[in-house]
Design goal:
Length: 372
């Protein structure tokens, strides 16, 4: 059966997202308002009964001096990725985006290929036999995901480079997730390693208090975020970005974005943001001070967020990106080490894929991006 595709209203888009158990926070209509430097459009797929069966948020970035656009669907679109006739979804999408002036399309299928349990990763690190997660036998595979990759290649889609670390894509290919569904909070905490459990107790004994903040507390988060950016050597986003994010997401759903602050003796030591779409909950941004690290505010804040995610009916708590390095000398190793302590699972997604509608402009963009 062929599918029809057209622009849909924000209301249609949001109603479709709400009908799903899970979708990426980057595929809700309000995410287009967060990314103010891009033009956004909601698109929908309709079946023969005129029922909306798929949706996507498209972000358009204009080329300088040309009315041509890169069309980007971050962690989307939300369609039936395991349909054997994937072309009936993607062909009308490409035709529509081309008509909108797109010269290239980038998308991130929300499809997990494989998962590694914490115990498997710890064993691999201890044995020092593998430098990368991809070289370790996974605990779970999704056979259909490999079929999706084959279908995309045959249709002319190009898989994005991941630079060997899982961070070459715009969105991370490897993430770390703690399953919450069908578990008790006791069971979740028992899954933590000894260090995590000890650090949570230490924070409690030290009098660390984690509170939920609001819009007015965003400057507190941002001050700690600037400290973190200097320490970890990344370019920070301005406060206005987080204020826009708060207003956009929470006007769409009052529970979409949350802010947490860990205080010790009245001083803010760590702060995080959390995002919620259906049963999927994300730890989005994290920030911490350089001092008083011994009272373990970061462990305390994560445990509070996990408990709140659980209370909201979350099925998964997503700690977002990790590198796939298992090399203790790699500067990104600490990221996986910290998250493995939660006892969850590392997951590998299909990564991002490009379709050059105009090969010359697509190549020029590739060249420009590689020189940045």
């Amino acid at each position: 059966m062929s599918l029809r595709l057209r622009t849909i209203t924000r209301e249609e888009h949001l109603a479709f997202i709400r009908s799903r158990a899970s979708a990426s926070h980057m595929q809700v209509p309000a995410w287009g308002d967060v990314k103010a430097e891009w033009r956004s459009e909601s698109i929908g797929w309709f079946d023969e009964h005129n029922q909306l069966v798929g949706a996507g948020l498209v972000l358009y970035r204009q080329l300088p001096k040309l009315k041509r656009y890169l069309a980007y669907l971050p962690e989307g679109p939300v369609i039936d990725w395991f349909d054997r006739d994937l072309d009936r979804w993607l062909s009308p999408m490409l035709a529509h985006l081309k008509a909108q002036g797109a010269f290239s399309v980038k998308m991130g299928p929300p499809v997990v290929i494989r998962r590694w349990n914490a115990a498997t990763i710890k064993e691999a690190i201890a044995a020092k036999q593998a430098k990368r997660l991809r070289d370790v036998e996974a605990d779970w595979y999704e056979a259909r995901a490999f079929e999706v990759a084959d279908r995309l290649r045959k249709a002319g889609w190009l898989q994005g480079e991941d630079g060997g670390a899982g961070f070459g894509d715009v969105q991370p290919r490897y993430v770390y997730q703690v399953p919450l569904a069908n578990r008790s909070l006791d069971d979740i905490q028992k899954g933590f390693n000894q260090l995590w459990r000890r650090n949570i107790k230490k924070a409690e004994k030290s009098g660390v208090e984690v509170v939920q903040g609001g819009y007015d507390e965003l400057p507190i988060f941002h001050q700690l975020y600037l400290v973190t950016a200097e320490r970890d050597k990344f370019t920070p986003r301005p406060l206005a970005y987080f204020q826009r994010m708060w207003n956009a997401l929470n006007s769409e759903d009052p529970n979409r974005m949350r802010l947490y602050i860990a205080y010790h003796e009245g001083e803010p030591l760590a702060s995080t943001t959390m995002l919620v779409v259906g049963e999927h909950v994300w730890y989005s941004y994290g920030a911490s001070a350089n001092h008083k690290r011994e009272v373990k505010p970061s462990n305390a804040i994560q445990w509070r967020m996990m408990r709140d995610a659980y209370a909201l009916g979350g099925g998964v708590y997503d700690l977002r990106g990790i590198s796939d390095t298992l090399d203790e000398n790699d500067h990104l190793f600490g990221l996986i080490q910290f998250k493995v302590g939660t006892g969850g699972q590392a997951a590998e997604y299909l990564g991002e894929w490009d379709f050059p509608l105009n090969k010359l402009l697509h190549k020029a963009l590739d060249l420009y991006m590689s020189r940045r």
